[in-house]
Amino acid sequence: MRLNTKLTSVPLALAALILSQSALSMSGSVDEQSKKEASPQTEATTQSDEGAFVAEDGRKLKYDPKNDAEDRGQRISEAEFMQAVKRSFLVNDEQEWKRFSDPTLKTCNVSHDKPDMEQAKSILAREKASIVLPEHGRYMGDWKQGKKWVEGAHGGRIGYPGFVDADNPAKLNGANCYACHAVDPNFPQNGNMGPSLTGFGKMRGQGEPMQKYTYEYIFNAKSFNPCSLMPRFGNGEGHLLTPEQIADIVAFLLDPESPVNQPKQ
């Protein structure tokens, strides 16, 4: 829309009024057009008079937008969900689908990350039993190697070999710790979903109980917190890290010579 009024020949306040009225007029016509375009329901899902939604297969699906939590699990079955997931993703090994039948994740999902006392005890016992030591039998490894694993972001992606986003099975995964934590004070960036680990060993010491605690927490955080958001780096088939890598990360966090426990340069 072109305004013929010369703004230089009218007071500034009047010019602003003309522009605002024009903008309102234009937005009104756009809003009306948007309503017309948005009004038809899609063929896949239509709303009935009773407030239920009718799916493509004819099923009536209840949905209350005021309380979405009550609707969870009603719209599709577990089998329908898995069918959709398997159509959407490619995997290198069918064993990778086992993650969807994990009993701990199932309990956490159903309870919305609030398991009852018995469920929590069951999870803690099961996850604790999964923890194993490295072959060298120590909780701490090489902190310089640990620095490499902490910074590494390779691993945990789904895709066939050759695809841009596929993991290289010949390459060890990284932990990508900086996505959630501050670790080395000299590292240029970090996330804040998890607590800062800067100065971890300086504040906590390097005694064997602390080594054991740190190793076990990285290996399987759910052995301490049943529905922890932290990945179980060492647990189960297709684990992200080897026990030796986890020991290296423990050393990176605890060793006095590690930059984690040194002043920022």
Could you outline the blueprint of secondary structure elements for this entry?
Layout: H1 12-38, E1 46-47, E2 53-54, E3 60-61, H2 68-71, H3 78-88, H4 103-110, H5 117-128, H6 143-151, H7 200-204, H8 208-219, H9 243-254
Antiparallel strand pairs: 1-2, 2-3
TL;DR of this structure?
The protein has 265 residues and is mainly α. It has helices at 12-38, 68-71, 78-88, 103-110, 117-128, 143-151, 200-204, 208-219, 243-254; strands at residues 46-47, 53-54, 60-61. The chain has a domain at 98-261: Cytochrome Bc1 Complex, Chain D, domain 2 (Orthogonal Bundle), CATH 1.10.760.
Descriptive tags:
disordered N terminus; 2% strand; mainly alpha; 265 residues
Total number of helical segments? 9
CATH architectural type of the domain at 98-261: Orthogonal Bundle
Low-confidence stretches: 1-51
Strand content: under 5%
What's the pLDDT, averaged over the residues?
A: 77
Please bin the fraction of helical residues.
25-40%
Spatial strand sequence of the major β-sheet: 1-2-3
Distance between the termini: 58 Å
CATH C-level class of the domain at 98-261: Mainly Alpha
The count of strands amounts to 3
What is the rounded Rg?
A: 28 Å
Mind summarizing the main beta sheet? 3 strands, antiparallel
Q: N-to-C SSE series?
A: HEEEHHHHHHHH
The helix-and-strand class reads: mainly alpha
GO molecular function: electron transfer activity; heme binding; metal ion binding
Keywords: Heme, Iron, Metal-binding, Signal
Signal peptide: 1-25
Biased composition (Basic and acidic residues): 56-72
